[in-house]
Design brief:
globular; Aminoglycoside_PTrfase; Aminoglycoside phosphotransferase; 3-stranded antiparallel β-sheet; AGP_Transferase; transferase activity; Aminoglycoside 3'-phosphotransferase, Chain: A, domain 2; alpha+beta; 259 residues
Length: 259
Amino acid sequence: MEEVQVVVAHHECATLRVGDVFLKIDSDQARTDVEVEAMAMAPVPTPEILWRKPPVLALAAVRGQALGHLGEPSTAPSAAWAAAGAAVRMLHDAPLPPRPGRSRDDFASELDSECEWLLTNAVLPADVVTYNRRLAETALRSWTPVFTHGDLQVSHVFVDGDEITGVIDWTEAAQGDALFDLAILTLGHEEHLDDVVAGYGTDVDLDVIRAWWSLRGLLGVRWLIEHGFDPSAPGCEVDVLMRAAGDHGRESPHGLRTR
């Protein structure tokens, strides 16, 4: 009898693995609609949809292993990171999905509220928040929308050697900034940024990518803490923010789990 593995679970959704089948359970079927439509449109490998019976979406496991994990060194070769960059470029060159995604004003408003929360609750030193907020604002410029994955964490890209075998978790797919995807893919893995950019095959503004690292970190800390994850684990969001500000002295909150 196959063992049931809880991959991730919180009050919004859960993902279970049973053998080679992933069961995604989501209370918001609009997110699942986005995922199914995006996978059908994406010009890169995606999981096979086995069946859908709301609130459950059954997906086949993809071959290979994750390109890496946030907070851990990646064992994937440089060629795999370059292949990931090439796959992202294919996605960005594809026709736009219907979902508009967050605007520059949306990000700016969210940045205001999250920085206020971080300071009010003394989650991060004020100088770290101030420095990263100033850096983050560089990302809030006009951009030409492309087909973005929207949550292209390194653990969402699967490889076999230097071959991309699948990109998973498309619930945030939308029209957006190309550099946002590149930033999320390389968050906490700055040493592979050159490989990804080389595979992407066109000049990109590295300062904007670094700005998205700061913005993503500032926006993500509260959600992670409230859902029981540890954003302060080595290599994760708080560590990225601290290193950007030149400060390594933050201890991790207690009672939180890594990803």
